[in-house]
């Protein structure tokens, strides 16, 4: 057991080192006298950033591995995080700034005290993010301000949609051109946000070719999905004005690849049991079918060690402990050590 724990510790250290290297390439200055301090935080993107509180309980679920209450194993506890490892990456960033989301408000703070706003949605594509941003600009919060921190993570469903649409995009060249264009569109949306004053942390998408879904299709199809991932990320990376003053780029693809290559982790088996997984085939059409994944908890795992060893919650979504947690560390590191 001790040797296993040592391998896992080394593995996590390797992931964090890769993140530090990735963040170091993002530009910016560490000598700013007045580092940026967020007064509000706004989250855009897909379910990898989403706290889903459909019943408005203040105790939301996420699309992956949920913690449960120590008093009642049938009750999800959105902020009982086992050392931070079962929360979304955006929760870690909000905590850094002392901000709270209404969907995860276990202390019952008043509405006026809730300064972190969730606008992400399940299955969101770049087009969906454009609508999320438009809606925020038009709602009662008055649009963006200079002390806002904005996070953006989307593209997984763009890759899946384009990959599965052989009518609109009949060959690899057409698919690659389309996903690259969508990455560029997301980059343009980010640039539009910073023009209004906020700072933005935007993440590239994970390598879809590494997902269990892609791996199950065989090597050739997995490579196609990796190529689509790279095209999307290239479009995003080369479009955002990433000079380190207002945008921090985080490389989720690097995180996923580092984890996939680490033998200390299980990148084949799924953490969530069969009753608590989404259907990746439906993601090809953009169907909102991830509800079952909301019920995946530390009590519904395929094995006792799945929470801390398995990279994937289901065939398309990462295990929060393994990837989203590490992405959260990266985002906080970007905010703390390389101020805007």
Describe this structure in words.
By secondary structure, this protein is of the alpha/beta class. It has one domain (2-337): Rossmann fold (3-Layer(aba) Sandwich). Helices cover 40% and strands 11% of the residues. It has 11 helices and 9 strands. It has a 5-stranded parallel β-sheet, with helices on both faces. A two-stranded antiparallel sheet has the order 2-3. Strand 2 and strand 3 (61-62) form a beta hairpin. Helix 4 (156-164) packs across helix 7 (219-239). It starts with a helix and ends with a helix. 51% of the residues are buried.
What attributes does this structure have?
two-stranded antiparallel ribbon; 40% helix; 11 helices; five-stranded parallel beta sheet; 340 residues; Rossmann fold
**What is the count of helical runs?**
11
Shape: globular
Mean pLDDT: 86
The CATH architecture category equals 3-Layer(aba) Sandwich
**Biggest sheet layout:** 5 strands, parallel
CATH topology: Rossmann fold
Give the count of structural domains: 1
- Structural class of the secondary elements? alpha/beta
* Poorly predicted segments: 1-31
Instruction: Bin the strand percentage.
Output: 5-15%
Strand order of the largest sheet: 4-1-5-6-7
What's the helical proportion of residues? Answer: 40-55%
Distance linking N and C termini: 42 Å
Any idea of the CATH class? Alpha Beta
Tally of strands = 9
Q: What pattern of helices and strands is seen along the backbone? A: HEEEHEHEHHEHHEHEHHEH
Q: What is the gyration radius calculated from CA atoms? A: 19 Å
Full CATH superfamily name: SGNH hydrolase
